[in-house]
Design a protein that fits this description.
By secondary structure, the protein is α+β, with helices and mostly antiparallel strands. A 5-stranded mixed beta sheet has the order 2-1-5-3-4, with helices on both faces. β1 and β2 form a beta hairpin. The chain is globular, with a radius of gyration of 28 Å. It is an enzyme of class 1 (oxidoreductase). GO terms for molecular function: carboxylate reductase activity.
């Protein structure tokens, strides 16, 4: 009677066999990933034209480029700051077609033909916007990092109130809102000041609001 054949499989042989089997399905994918990045459609630059601070600008950008990065990296408008990159701090606030937005949460290619205003477009040292001058007068900043976003947001807040746009704390949605302390703080709540200069910022905005009414 023949003796049974003993099969001895070492751990090393088993691992080697499993790796070889797995590589059969992996290699084609690896070859696809090794293609030059220039062949990937998502990375081909796209043309976009808009108006920035009163001047027409045309760019070639990656489809994934945010408006914030386009302003800072492509147009060298570094007044607009990159803070949290999640739309939570307001440091990147700019004004687009009269409405304030977080520029880190929107793509540059989405703003074809739009009118964009950054803090540089509001005023320059030799000719300050009234809001910029009020921030200086009332010391509405300390480190200054959030200040460009605070100023752009503050300018837009006054325009919102003039347009009769209510906020979450407006008691009557059909009546024209007034710049009360609670209205101001609610509307500016999306702009964080890590230095805590909130009372000075509120005083600066209130002064500009009073002088424009």
């Amino acid at each position: 009677m023949p003796k049974p054949v003993k099969l001895e499989v070492s751990r090393r042989r088993l691992l080697a066999a499993g790796t070889a089997t797995a590589m059969v399905g992996v290699v084609p994918g690896a070859q696809a990933q090794s293609q030059p990045s220039s062949q990937k459609p998502s990375q081909r630059p796209t043309g976009v034209s808009f108006e920035v601070n009163g001047k027409p600008r045309s760019l070639q950008v990656d489809n994934r480029t945010t408006l914030l990065d386009a302003l800072r990296e492509n147009l060298s408008l570094t007044g607009t700051k990159k803070g949290c990159d999640h739309g939570q701090c307001g440091a990147c606030t700019v004004i687009v077609n009269g409405t304030r937005i977080n520029s880190c949460l929107t793509l540059a290619v989405m703003h074809e033909g739009d009118r964009i205003t950054t803090v540089e477009g509001l005023g320059q040292p030799e000719r300050l916007h009234p809001m910029q001058a009020a921030f200086i007068k009332h010391d509405g900043y300390q480190c200054g990092y959030c200040t460009p976003g605070q100023i752009c947001s503050a300018v837009a807040v006054l325009d919102e109130i003039k347009a009769g746009i209510p906020s979450h704390v407006s008691a009557d949605l059909t009546a024209s809102p007034h710049l009360t302390n609670i209205e101001l703080r609610e509307r500016m709540s999306g702009n964080i000041c890590r230095c805590g200069a909130y009372s000075n910022i509120a005083e600066a905005i209130a002064e500009v609001a009073g002088s424009s009414t």
